[in-house]
Amino acid sequence: MDLSQYLQTGEENQAEPEQQLSKEEYAALKKQQREEVWGAVDAKAQEVFQNGESLKGFLNFMAQCKPQKAANLLLLYGQNPEIRQVKTFDGWKKEHKTLRPGVHGYTFIADQNYEKDGEIRQGYVITRAYDISQIRTKQPEPPEPKLIQVLLGALLKNSETKVSIGDNLPESVQAQYIPRQRTIFARNGMSEEVTFHAINREMACAAMDAHDGTYSRVSVSPQAFCAAYVVAQRYGVENSGFQLDKVCEMQEYGNKDPQELRAFIGNVKNAVYTISRHIDRNLGQPEQEFTADEFAVAEGTNGDKRGQETQAPEVPAEKAQKQKGGKAKKQPER
Fold this sequence. Notes:
Blueprint: H1 23-48, H2 52-64, H3 70-79, E1 86-88, H4 89-94, E2 106-116, E3 119-131, H5 148-156, E4 162-165, E5 175-178, E6 183-186, H6 192-207, H7 217-234, H8 245-250, H9 258-283, H10 317-325
Parallel strand pairs: 4-6
Antiparallel strand pairs: 1-3, 2-3, 5-6
């Protein structure tokens, strides 16, 4: 028996010294805390773009980590590159999960609503979050690798952006998104992996098209290239052909304004999440199966002969159970 599970342990029960400060001291402390956190975010953004390998390390982290805002991805990556899924203490508590003894949380930027002048506004608070490895719960299993054919099918099925075979594409073009037609034209005959990468890159371009006439392929191509790398990494598709040094060069090896670098990462992140949601939705959608019809029409009788009952195709028990219960509702993303 683990007695600690009956006792209140963890950082959430420790009194915070800052609560004993005056109002002015508390405000000054919080301001200093915010400045330090955003300084760490900006420093990590610049560090990420130093070279292709440093950028690849961060993109690998983005691929393994559950969805987060760009600032939190940078902040968490700087604290522990092994993080996979974080929530605040209250977030885990809502799921009836508790912390392991002696764990220390990670600095985290959490959304927080507040009231001002009679209006509800959205702000943020610097708090602590805990990775799933720090939680008393069954740890997630690594996802089973999917065949590239299955992933391609999930990518192309019911896509919001139309994908067509481009019969007259220039030799150097694998695939390209045309904003006026809202269509991706892809070369036929490429390998399955290259086709997957090329279409994901163009899906990312489409995701960054606001359809207001401001779309520029030159502006979004580096982010789209990074997004295609992250999607491949997330689903275990071979991606050694991605060379990221050119991307870092375009970002002046991290010497650009940190806000620009954070915006770049935000665009990559948003495109990745858009594509991943589409793929995951299609991977989780069971194919239509043949099932025995309770109201099948019997064959007519002729004299004493009775129509023989037609045997329906056999359905695996687990698939039949899924159909009976219907598609499980997904929990909203946090």
